[in-house]
Structure formats: C-alpha cells, structure tokens
C-alpha cells in the first residue's frame, strides 16, 4: 500500500491514508495498526484531525467523510460526488475547508452542509488556515489569500 497522507491525532496515535482506498489508525507506542477504516472507493488524498478521535478524509471518489477512529465508523458524508477533493483542513470547532478543482468549500460538520463556497481561477491543490479571518490555497505556481 502506498501511503499518500498522514495526520497525528495525539502524541501516541496517528492515521494514514493510502492508494488502496483505506485509512489506518495507528498506535505509536505498540507500533500496531489498531483499526482499518473502510468506505472510500478511491485513493485517499487528504486527512485532517478534527479531535483526538475524529478525522475528516478526502478521496478520489470525490467524497469527504467524517470518521470516529475509535469505532471505525463513518459518521457523515460531505460532498456531491461531482467535485474533486485534493485537500481538507480543520478550521475551528464545527468547521472545515475542502478544496479541489475550482471550488473551495466551507462545511459545517454538525449539519453536514456547505455554508460557503469560493470560486478560484485555478485548480486548488492545497488549503491551510492562517488565522481566524484568513486562509490560503495553493495551485500550480500560484498562492491565493482568502478571507472567511
């Protein structure tokens, strides 16, 4: 399995996403895979920690999923299976950003809805929160600074 993304949950646990469409929840202390999360039908492109027990994943299947890593259950799906997902990042309590293609979307986790959408002139490959008011997206040879 080719690992495509990794994110730490706490000082002893992390998750990895692979091209085999699966996410693995690891215990660093015992050096073992605690659980494998199944559900995506495309390669895992991106992961973001929401808490020490929840993550958001984005895949080539054009879906974003919220997972409880302690149970392995998918708690919610986001997206419409029509938009690419290259990057997800946790913003603050209850919200995350996703980017892919020419769309950047701000999702409200509890309701599962997209509360704001941004159009970008180029394909956005990565997104990161700067502070409470701004975020940055990266594309081919270009960075864009945005306000929430």
Structural features, described:
This protein starts with a strand and ends with a strand. The radius of gyration is 15 Å and the shape is globular. Helix content is 0%, strand content 59%. The chain has strands spanning 3-8, 13-18, 23-27, 32-37, 44-49, 54-59, 64-68, 73-78, 87-92, 95-100, 103-108, 113-119, 126-129, 134-139, 142-147. The model has no long low-confidence stretch (mean pLDDT 93). The chain has 148 residues and is mainly β. It has a four-stranded antiparallel β-sheet with strand order 1-2-3-4, with no helix packed on it.
By DSSP (H or I, 4+ residues per run), the number of helices equals: 0
Shape label: globular
**N to C succession of SSEs:** EEEEEEEEEEEEEEE
Main beta-sheet annotation = 4 strands, antiparallel
Structural class: mainly beta
**Secondary structure tally: strands:** 15
Helix content: under 10%
Give the CA-CA distance, first to last residue.
37 Å
Strand order of the largest sheet: 1-2-3-4
Radius of gyration, CA atoms, in whole angstroms: 15 Å
Mean pLDDT: 93
Q: How large is the share of residues in beta strands?
A: over 45%
What's the oligomerization state? single chain
* Residue runs with pLDDT of under 50 for 5 or more positions: none
């Amino acid at each position: 399995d080719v690992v495509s993304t990794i994110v730490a949950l706490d000082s002893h646990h992390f998750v990895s996403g692979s091209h085999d469409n699966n996410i693995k929840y690891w215990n660093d202390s015992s050096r073992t895979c605690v659980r494998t999360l199944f559900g995506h039908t495309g390669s895992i492109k991106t992961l973001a920690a929401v808490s020490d027990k929840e993550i958001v994943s984005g895949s080539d299947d054009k879906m974003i999923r919220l997972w409880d890593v302690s149970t392995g259950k998918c708690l919610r799906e986001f997206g419409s299976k029509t938009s690419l997902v290259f990057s997800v990042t946790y913003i603050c309590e209850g919200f995350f950003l996703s980017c892919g293609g020419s769309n950047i979307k701000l999702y409200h986790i509890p309701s599962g809805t997209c509360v704001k959408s941004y159009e970008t002139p180029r394909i956005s490959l990565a997104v990161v929160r700067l502070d409470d008011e701004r975020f940055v997206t990266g594309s081919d040879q270009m960075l864009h600074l945005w306000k929430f």
